[in-house]
């Protein structure tokens, strides 16, 4: 069973969540689209209500045409990039409501666009990501340990990629 610690940045004790089951119901998202130069906005509603569950250890594929709301759904489920959105509905973790801060601190998804810095080594890239994403209260040793676990788990060192510059390791594969 995996354990996930969520940092409540307001100083309250950390929550520990085991084997997370994510469920959502009646998600309705409105986006503000600029209508004119006078800051008038119109609301564009996403047409579909979705009821879904994602069980621990499972894989969910979200498919659809361009503009159908795949990324918006992921943003809602991970509580990211919500500034221009009005969200109604319920997102639950293990059947309970949790704060958007908790959801954002324990969830993520891989962006559509490459976020690699092509002149960094694989290790440097991992460090860059750790510095951006992990709890600022973690010590440098804890962050280095996290990076080492990823390198070991993915056999990066055995493949000779740890000190390889990303551009050389993964040339334009698009």
What can you tell me about this protein's structure?
There is one protein chain. With 174 residues, the chain is of the alpha+beta class. The protein has 2 domains: 3-106, no CATH class; 122-169, no CATH class. It is 26% helix and 23% strand. It has 5 helices and 7 strands; from the N terminus they run E-E-E-E-E-H-E-E-H-H-H-H. Strands 3, 4, 5, 6 and 7 form a 5-stranded antiparallel sheet that branches. Helix 3 (122-133) crosses helix 4 (140-153). The two termini are 36 Å apart.
List keywords for this structure.
174 residues; membrane; alpha+beta; 5 helices; transmembrane; ATP hydrolysis activity; globular; ATP binding; single chain; ABCG_transporters
Shape descriptor reads: globular
The total tally of domains equals: 2
Order of helices and strands: EEEEEHEEHHHH
Give the N-to-C terminal Cα separation: 36 Å
Query: Radius of gyration in whole Å, from Cα?
Result: 19 Å
Q: Helicity, in percent?
A: 25-40%
What is the multimeric organization of the chains shown?
A: single chain
Number of strands: 7
Characterize the main sheet.
Answer: 5 strands, antiparallel
Poorly predicted runs: 1-11
Number of helices: 5
Which secondary-structure class do the elements indicate?
Answer: alpha+beta
Average pLDDT across residues?
75
Strand composition percent? 15-25%
Protein name: ABC transporter domain-containing protein
GO molecular function, one term: ATP hydrolysis activity
Organism: Oppiella nova
Subcellular location: Membrane
């Amino acid at each position: 069973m995996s354990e996930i610690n969520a940092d409540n940045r307001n100083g309250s004790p950390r929550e520990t969540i085991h084997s997370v089951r994510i469920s959502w119901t009646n998600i309705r998202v409105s986006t503000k689209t600029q209508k004119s130069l006078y800051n008038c906005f119109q609301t564009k509603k996403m047409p579909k209500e979705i009821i879904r569950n994602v069980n621990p250890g499972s894989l969910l594929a979200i498919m659809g045409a361009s503009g159908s709301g795949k990324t918006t759904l992921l943003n809602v489920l991970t509580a990211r990039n919500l500034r221009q959105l009005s969200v109604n509905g319920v997102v639950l973790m293990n059947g309970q409501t949790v704060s958007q801060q908790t959801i954002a601190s324990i969830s993520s998804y891989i962006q559509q666009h490459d976020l690699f810095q092509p002149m960094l080594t694989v290790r440097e890239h991992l460090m860059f990501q750790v510095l951006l994403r992990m709890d600022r209260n973690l010590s440098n040793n804890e962050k280095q340990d996290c990076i080492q676990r990823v390198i070991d788990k993915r056999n990066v060192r055995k493949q000779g990629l740890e000190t390889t510059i990303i551009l050389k390791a993964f040339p334009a594969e698009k």
